[in-house]
Amino acid sequence: MAEKARGPRREPVASAEPDAAADIGVEARIAAGILLNAALERRGGMDEAQGFAEIRRLPAPDRAFARAVAMAALRRLGEIDQILTRRLKATPNAAVMTILRIALAQILVLETPAFAAVSTAVKLAERDAKTRPYKALVNAVLRGIGRDGPGITTPESNLPDWIAARWRATYGDTALTGLALAARDEPSSDLSLKPSADALALASALEGHVLPGGSVRTAKRGDIATWPGFEDGDWWVQDAAAAVPARLLSVGPGETVLDMCAAPGGKTLQLAAAGATVTALDRSETRLARVTANLARTGLTAGVVAVPAEDWDDTRTFDAVLLDAPCTATGTFRRNPEVLRATRPADVAKLADVQHRLLDVAADRVRPGGRLVYCVCSLEREEGETQIIAFLRRNPAFRTVSADPAAIGAPDEALTPEGWLRILPSMWAENGGLDGFFAARLERAG
Ligand SMILES: C[S@@+](CC[C@H](N)C(=O)[O-])C[C@H]1O[C@@H](n2cnc3c(N)ncnc32)[C@H](O)[C@@H]1O
User: Fold this and answer.
1) Ligand 1 pocket check: which of 6, 261, 435 to mutate, most ligand atoms within 8 Å of Cβ?
2) Contact call for residues 359 and 414 (beta carbons, < 8 A)
């Protein structure tokens, strides 16, 4: 589930050019509504809907605009609905709500000129028998908001209630507000570099900056395949927090490493770039194709094995094992706002069972004296701290080796009293934040 498979190409994001949006028509707004509703209906819905004929037949800038609008609406859904609720005497049918949500995402988030957002919303309402009777209402509501302003909204409303309640209980009120604020805006892109690449030069070419761990952060958008160094395989896209666990494993040249849930491969590339002899294992052949493609582009090498870890009939043990386990991925909401809508409370317990099982499989692969890093991009304790507490009870041969956040590009405040890392998306807020991760480094007795 975590770390969605995404191709390297990103279309130009129309949100960066508000005026251009005035020339984009009704079809793109329809597409935005389809994408938004698909994301609200099912996990992976937005990616799936990108394949629908109504979306595919649009010109690339319209498709990019539709996606930007849908993502903005998804990120600010709670606030958008707060604004609309104040204006509506009764909730209109779902199709009308979609038109209003899409229009408000354009006006409030993407800074689309209001005349373009309102006139396309009214035209959209006109096209369908279900929405035609509400044409005047759509016009009046949007013009009213344009005239009077949106009014006060609370960022916490963008989080589903059950998730907000969970995070409040786990992290407290102040952290919850920080998390809600981190969920509102589209994040920058972070790039991990091969050791031979020049981070300062890349940062300067992309008008970005170098982060403490060495990743380059850029607000640039568009087709990453055209950025300097992509063709040469100098870097790959990887959130700054996602780059921390492989550094925590601290592998050196010649060491044998098992990356036990490897696809799409960001951490495999880091481990291979550090000179280790890496085996990249994953149960999904489709996702492993991304690992193979990334290895080819970067000129790095790793053995690739497609099999569920528990069924792997190989008896080797390794100097180091990385288990980046499947999880709810709730820590990735900045990049994938869908996770907040698609995750159900029961998923946490279901995935915690899988993690428990995979941790024991991973432990068997660590040679005496070797080390194990367990990580998840989830903010749920059951998938992080609770797993490690239970694992250490079951496996007395293992002990925690405390992390040194400064040495591996993690925020200092991420260090827990136990020596694990609990990175929250609200950390480094002044610098654009980072994904949420839990990571623990364990060592097996010799
Ligand atoms: C969080 S993702 C891994 C992300 C990857 N480490 C990276 O940095 O790009 C989890 C992966 O676990 C894989 N997976 C799930 N169950 C597995 C199992 N039983 N054995 C091996 N891989 C599994 C999934 O296919 C998925 O690719």
Assistant:
1) 261
2) no
In short, whether 383's Cβ falls inside 6 Å of ligand 1 is no
pLDDT digits (tens, 9 = 90+) for 222-239: 899 999 999 999 999 999
Q: How far is CA 199 from CA 188, 211, 212, 214, 252, in A?
A: 16, 10, 11, 7, 21
List 281's β-bridge partners, or say none.
Answer: 305
Cα separation, 305 vs 263, in Å, equals 11
Q: Which residue has the tokens 């279309």?
A: 11
Q: What share of the chain is helix, strand, coil (3-state, %, to 5)?
A: 50, 15, 35
Single-letter amino acid, residue 182: A
Active-site annotation holds for 377: yes
Residue 78 Cβ inside 6 Å of ligand 1? The answer reads no
Q: How many CB atoms lie within 10 A of CB 298?
A: 19
Binding site membership of 266 for ligand 1 (Cβ less than 6 Å): yes
Give 149's DSSP letter: -
Active-site option among 261, 327, 375, 377 = 377
Other CB atoms within 10 A of residue 357 CB: 13
CA 261 to ligand 1 center in whole angstroms: 3
Q: Read off the pLDDT of residues 338-368 as tens digits, 9 standing for 90 and up.
A: 999 989 999 999 999 999 999 999 999 999 9
Q: How far is the CA of 193 from the centre of ligand 1 (A)?
A: 22
Residues in the chain: 446
pLDDT at 3: 36
153, two tokens: 């909204």
For the four alpha carbons of 243, 248, 252 and 257, in that order, the dihedral sign comes to: negative
3-class DSSP state of 190: strand
**Token digits for 165?**
């309640």
Cβ distance 36 to 74 under 8 Å? yes
Torsion of CA 131, 59, 72, 95, to 10 degrees: 10
The reply to whether ligand 1 has any atom less than 6 angstroms from the CB of 282 is yes
Identify whether the C-beta of residue 197 lies closer than 8 Å to the C-beta of residue 191: no
Mean pLDDT of the chain: 94
CB of 92 within 6 A of ligand 1: the answer is: no
